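Memo to structure team: turn this sequence into structure tokens by end of day. - J.P.
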Amino acid sequence: MHLLHRVVLAPLAVPFLSAFAAPGPPVQTGGTPPNVLLIVADDMGVDMLQSYGEGTDFPVTPTLDSLAAGGMLFRNAWSNPNCSPTRATIMTGRYGLRTGIGDVIKETTPALEPTETTIPELLTMAGTGYESGAFGKWHLGNATNGGLLSPNVAGFHHYDGALGGALQSPPSWMSYYMWPETVNGSLAVRTDYATSVTVDSALAWIGNRAGPWFSYVAFNAPHRPFHAPPAGLYSENLTGLDPAVNERAFYKAMIEAMDTEMGRLLKGIGPELENTVVIFVGDNGSPRSTTVAPFLPSHGKATVYEGGINVPLIASGPGIQAGSECGGLVNTTDLFSTVAELAGVDVASWLANTKLDSVSLVPYFADPQLPSLRSWVYAERFRPVGATGYVRRAMRAIRDDRYKLILSFDRHQFFDLQSDPFELSNLLIGGLTPAEQDRYDQLKQTMLQLVTNP
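Reply from structure team:
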């Protein structure tokens, strides 16, 4: 984040997305640039979306179902295991081993360095004419990088949301119905439902834009505390249930409420939606306490198993093949270069001296069957926050098109994701075939080179 750019400042029905329903030409950066709406869900893995078909007992999500039907679903998208590290990869296009964001940012830890270049800063540097607004959860700042102005210091022209990690105690009064709202550095207590306020704020800002815009809408939902959303936003039967006991029911209701409000957001954009690329992503897998078979609770959020890092990623909009699925390997770092290319920015020329880990997804938009643009994909969690390169207390995972290696401070595992997608059988127990040994060696060498040369 460059201080040079500091700024002082009813569920959607399928027909509404009909503008996305037919394959369009590749995204043209030389014509009218598209708006970009990047939506992030907090603590939501692929197990919670019927469009992925990998879990059971799904919440009601007509908006996300419509988005997938009218756009492209990415099957093999990896995030990091928890909040701040994934958000840092999105904003910078760089792994945590380079930015130092390997775990949750707190008031007492380092935060995202102002020297990192973020998406909104790049759009401004390149003279694209895009205005950038961020709404909802931030979780990348503290007093070390701007305090209440942290999102603005990071390049956003406008910010309205909750700066911290969760809307729960401490302090004891905090909830989705009473929470600290920061608007461009001004702090006040808000007593309206946070999920709805995020959409209200985004729509108000988008409605006043005269040119192209990038809107980062990061819901706090469905992160705990689990609760009943306002009536009218969900249909899950919560009668007689206690969120402390029946966590999954309330978790599903929160997802449905978020989906309902997403529908209101897309509908509220109006005709501009036809020139808007919408990207939805989860920041990590689902909480362990809400996980049900065939997924394993011990493989959920905060782990580098698939349940902790394989997240939903859906893109829809002009030039994106409708009703398609892409099996290419993807990392949340890739959203950085994707937004840049959509805005017509040549990342390599603007950030020639920066080590980036980001691969644009735009080529997939016209041809989802392209061979994977990545030969491997990587995820990590480590402490302390602020460290770079090799850190002893770390969980790291790397995979290719078939095999996955986990090298952590407390475990060493190798899986065949093709025959064992839920990672039940560690191939290192019993010995490897020559072909497996070759893949293992390649993945281990790639990981070690990566973490020792940040």
